[in-house]
User: What shape does this take?
Amino acid sequence: MSIEKKKYILAIDHGTSGAKTAICSTHGDVVDWIFEEVPLHIFEGGGAEQDPDDWWNAIMNTAKKLIDSGCVPVEEIVGVCNTSQWSGTVAVDKDGNHLMNSIIWMDTRGQPYIKKLHKSLLQVSGYSLPLILKWIKITGGGPTLSGKDPIAHILWIKNQRPDIYEKTFNFLEPHDFINLKLTGKFAASFASIHNHWLTDIRDINNITYSKKLIKKAGVTPDKFPSDLRNSIDVLGPITKEVADTLGLEKSTKVLMGAPDLHAATIGSGAVRDYEGHLCIGTSDWLICHVPFKKTDMFHGMASFPSAIPGKYFLANEQEIAGGALTYLRDNILYHKDELLVEEAVPDVYKVFDKIVENTPAGANGLIFTPWLYGERTPIDDHTIRAGLHNISLNTTREHLIRAVFEGVAYNVRWLFYYVEQFIKKWVKKERPGMKKGDFIMPEINIIGGGASSNVWCQIFADVLNRKIKQVENPIQANARGAAFIASVGLGYIDWDHIPKHIKISKVFTPNPENRQRYDKLYSEYLNIYKLMKKWYKRLNE
Assistant: This one.
């Protein structure tokens, strides 16, 4: 295997906000990229959809512009690899045409059908104990009460759109739908299919569908892709139509790829066991690879199949991170009305950074809870909501903005505690020289749009009391991860080579002067949930 030869990958990073297409070297260098926004359609009752045609058009538009720019010779582009938003559902017919909008990861309309599935005399936190234990044994998790999993989407379609259900040839993840458009092949990766909770992952090297769980879920087995593959497998060459449209060589290979969490984990450079990375995008997650299958059903975390064959990674996700800043911008500070023309809106995030840098830590005791869309981890609670707590006549706009930054960090610290508990036992076994007080995860790579903010990185270091390593070009981690997956699949690099190709822009160390203040505010942050959760439930259920 050559580790010196460098070619290029067309890396597609397809998220909720839109399509970002990049050209990356096989060593993970991002040469250039283009983004195109995609509409999101929200409906009363928990509906969240997107039009797959909007996805595909945005991907093709950005890819063509990028290739036509001539930033690299087209003959040097040896592969295409896609990473997409996860936990969505596209119903397609046998010709690959989508039959309705995609139901995406935010949609909760399937919740009643999951609650019905979990109906039992013996329940824990709303889950049927016998059922969830059976599910966890096989898949590591199970259909969540939030109704946001693909199995919930499919049950909603079966009950509310039976005409669509009958016509559906395959229910595909967004990631696998894009691969279908690229190659004409119906397939799923072990990584993408997993959140359907229908595959047996006990043998990480031999993942198959569980007939028992498919029957228990009440879905038709032949409506799922029969072709399951590793993320590094070549799915096939691109179709002639795609090759002609983009100007790529017809022999250009399409790699299976993986959903966003999996690709970002690799693109962060944290590919070794127990090395953590924090992603601050619209949502956030804190993930590391692990060599074992384990589930923490009480805190919404489990070992899932990784994009690295034969490995698991600890999966979790929180609903809102950077999305809280977007909400602050669009709904409070810079609401689009007759009094404000769009040209008057500055580069808001840079303004936020400057304001936060000049506002003392702790935001004058103001606490923001970022639960704008409920929460997944470390609690699965769709009824809790965001709030500003401890407002007084002394509270300023500056305190408000700083409190939003800090509130997201408190929420991450809540998750971080359970992540360290998840891996603690195994880390201590592998590090027999650990002393009392040594950190389980002493440093974390940070990626995503939020990682571009130096002041936010420092807040995370201070609140978590851990070293934060800012990955260079942090918003390109997904595309970089897709490129690395393709590079390994095509034989240009090995997994062990990836960390040396990751550049760190800056390392942030905790400021001890803020330790006591943040520990106190974080303690009260936890108390807010304990005291308010029943109240939120009464208001929002």
Observations:
- The first strand starts at residue 8 and ends at 14.
- The chain has a mean pLDDT of 94.
